[in-house]
TrEMBL record, chains A, B:
Native organism: Pleomorphomonas diazotrophica
Family: Belongs to the SorC transcriptional regulatory family.
Superkingdom of origin organism: Bacteria
Single biological process term from Gene Ontology: DNA-templated transcription initiation
Keywords per UniProt: DNA-binding, Transcription, Transcription regulation
Protein name: DNA-binding transcriptional regulator
Pfam families reported in the protein's UniProt record: Sugar-bind
Residue stretches making up the Sugar-binding domain: 67-311
Amino acid sequence: MNEANDELAFEPHEEELLSRVAWHYYHDGLTQSEIGERLNLSRIKVSRMLDRGRKMGLIHVHINSSYGGCFALEARLQEIYGLDEARVIPAQETGNINDRLAEAASQYLMGRLKDQEMLAVGWGATVMGTLQRLARTLSYRDISLVSLTGGVSAYIEGVASGRSSQNVHLIPAPLVVSQENIAEAIRAERHVVEVMSMARTANYALVGIGAVADEATLIASGYASRSQFEIFRRQGAVGDIIGIFYDQNGEPLDLPFHKMLVGLDFGALSAIPQVIAAAGGPKKIDAIRAAARGGRIDVLITDEPTAQAIIEKDQA
Amino acid sequence: MNEANDELAFEPHEEELLSRVAWHYYHDGLTQSEIGERLNLSRIKVSRMLDRGRKMGLIHVHINSSYGGCFALEARLQEIYGLDEARVIPAQETGNINDRLAEAASQYLMGRLKDQEMLAVGWGATVMGTLQRLARTLSYRDISLVSLTGGVSAYIEGVASGRSSQNVHLIPAPLVVSQENIAEAIRAERHVVEVMSMARTANYALVGIGAVADEATLIASGYASRSQFEIFRRQGAVGDIIGIFYDQNGEPLDLPFHKMLVGLDFGALSAIPQVIAAAGGPKKIDAIRAAARGGRIDVLITDEPTAQAIIEKDQA
DNA sequence: GCGCATCGTGATCATATGATCGACGGAAAC
DNA sequence: GTTTCCGTCGATCATATGATCACGATGCGC
């Protein structure tokens, strides 16, 4: 605060000197001592001038990369929603967005997973892609996999096939069944109970975020119908995580559909130390924003335009 | 110099990591050790990544121009010669002056070039250095490159190698040929005509300014002989731009040499909205001064002693 | 297969940098 | 005039940084 009103105006000569010092330092690669000798200044003074130059914004560092702009967004996301971490991948017209998110997510997890740890996985296209990319790492590095919901086995088997299958625990059931009492019965099965309680002990959860849109994977794979989605939307649903639909504040709705799910609920999900979500694309803006606002996730991996849109909505 | 053209291409993931490191270092003010911890890298590796980032031009330090530079001299140059802009870099005995000018020029252009724009480039050591520094920006930011003369391909290819080569248009010919009729024939070639007419549509032209001295790059690279230069000097030549020699008022001379050039003439050059020249050093004082007086250039990037000398000569 | 060169890595150490502290000097208050 | 406050300066020292070295992995040619 004290230096905030520190004279912003200084001698023109001072300005020139400062920029000269900055030039020598940053562009010519001279040391502060060398600059001092050359311009008859004490080394310490040169140091202070550079410091001042930086504080005043006279010296500006530009990161000349398509990633550059993303870091600012990451910082904002973390700040606004209290995320542990955010990853934003650069905008790019070409290429499937889910593939690129999966790539980023798998990279993130690779750097994060330690031996002996357990990763719980949800349901969705992005999650599947991530697991495919992770497959090799998982088998090399004694990492266990467990499913958060039913319906995962379909794609996870190919991924974790072979050697390390003893470390893979799946809920042997579909994601959604047709009747509430059937779901109850399945959830009571001993093996299902075991896997679900194991999932509660996972170190990380990897989930996708679904939009309430006709293109949703839930509809494409026959777990839900368009008319159901229309009803969900009327009730205020903006998105889903592991099959549970929530409103714009990230609060889970009370839907009959939820009673037919086989998998963990939001309470159990939140108990997992770190919930990592990978999702992006224009359709998912509201879904992601609500999840973040509601504290449903700890780590968000998304793309640049989506991040921008989310932040803008919470700006006002 | 030698390692300047070591592989400019690297893994996308590598680049992301590098950008992230740079961001933490320069924007968040973290130390290299802290970054290492955070990203699971050894401190030394972080240090090396930063080094590489700087060398590759991924990290750029910009010194705010409104304060930076050598104010008084810049203002005087603009005033006396009616330049759009002047950049003067501080004096320094050691270090290659061309490298420092190239640094300044690339910085200027980076701040100026917008997407979809086209930059036409001339011939010379400083231009080459500038392009090397710009390479990264150019490929990222949909900017087209076109040559103003022949003989450019030799050094531009390494620069624009790889991805964005569809945006690079070179005159496929040497700068100077041995006979007038050969030059005529080349200039009539369809492809050459095309590139030259494209060059006329460029938004900016980046050129060097050559002195009529034995050290000239034109002589060093075998395009002209000392005896030719001696003759040019007798005829009143004080400098050249894209191979065209002019007198002390910046008026092009009528030399046979010019008829053997493959490239644009002064009329076409002036038609480009902004002609940017980067040149400095004691040998080039008269050449630069004449170019400025004759209105051959719109933007001048030079060094302090040279600027001083030029102004002094026009003071009296 | 066996050197051989090359590269990337981390360890060690010299150097560069910036934080802290006391001293000096000028300006305002008394 | 003195005193006190404030800012600046340089000395000292802890830390951050980058240069050098040595090692192990990888790839190449013999």
